[in-house]
Amino acid sequence: MAKEFIICVIVVFFIIIGDITTHTYAENSIENLITQLGELRQIIQEDKDKDNATQKIDEISEFFNSKYTNLAYFIEHSELEKGQTGLSEVKSNLEVGENSQAIVQLDKSITILNNINDKLSLKWENIL
User: Fold this and answer.
1) How would you write the chain as a 3-class SS string?
2) What is the pLDDT along the chain (128 residues), one digit of tens a residue?
3) What's the alpha-carbon Rg for the chain, to the nearest Å?
4) CA separation (Å) from 115 to 34, 61, 74, 110?
5) Distance CA 64, CA 14 (A)
6) CB atoms inside a 10 Å sphere around CB 38
7) How far apart are CA 42 and CA 52, in angstroms?
8) How distant, in Å, are the alpha carbons of 42, 63, 80, 122 from that of 125?
9) Which domains does the chain have, with CATH numbers?
10) CA distances from 74 to 25, 31, 112 (A)
């Protein structure tokens, strides 16, 4: 009986450590993306030169693509695709000069990223 209990405790311990590790990585990556998107929002609102905004969205897309493969191990692909699609829409709106639409899409992308963070957290509502 004690042997089975110890094995169960060890398994639960490793599950919790794995969840903390993956959640920390995902949370840091997503928070970094959200920060960069907020900076892009300010650039769009303050600067009329679309080159700065286009350069920033390229940097954000490159960062997202570098994190995509690692995040795909423990986040649903459909959620990541929504984020990637949102970034593509922001980029296309900036290239066309639709800054107001780009800001709306930025806000949607930030909301999607926040939802991904919420889904990953170890909460009773996510477990049940």
Assistant:
1) CHHHHHHHHHHHHHHHHHHHHHHHHHHHHHHHHHHHHHHHHHHHHHCCCHHHHHHHHHHHHHHHHHHHHHHCCCCCHHHHHHHHHHHHHHHHHHHHCCHHHHHHHHHHHHHHHHHHHHHHCCCHHHHC
2) 788 999 999 999 999 898 788 888 888 999 999 999 999 888 888 876 778 888 888 999 999 989 888 888 878 888 888 888 988 998 898 888 888 888 899 999 999 888 888 877 666 665 55
3) 19
4) 12, 19, 14, 9
5) 28
6) 12
7) 11
8) 35, 31, 22, 9
9) 2-119 (1.20.120.660)
10) 11, 17, 16
User: What is the value of pTM for the model shown?
Assistant: 0.79
**Can you read off the two tokens belonging to residue 96?**
């066309």
Sign for the CA dihedral angle at 2, 21, 111, 85 comes to negative
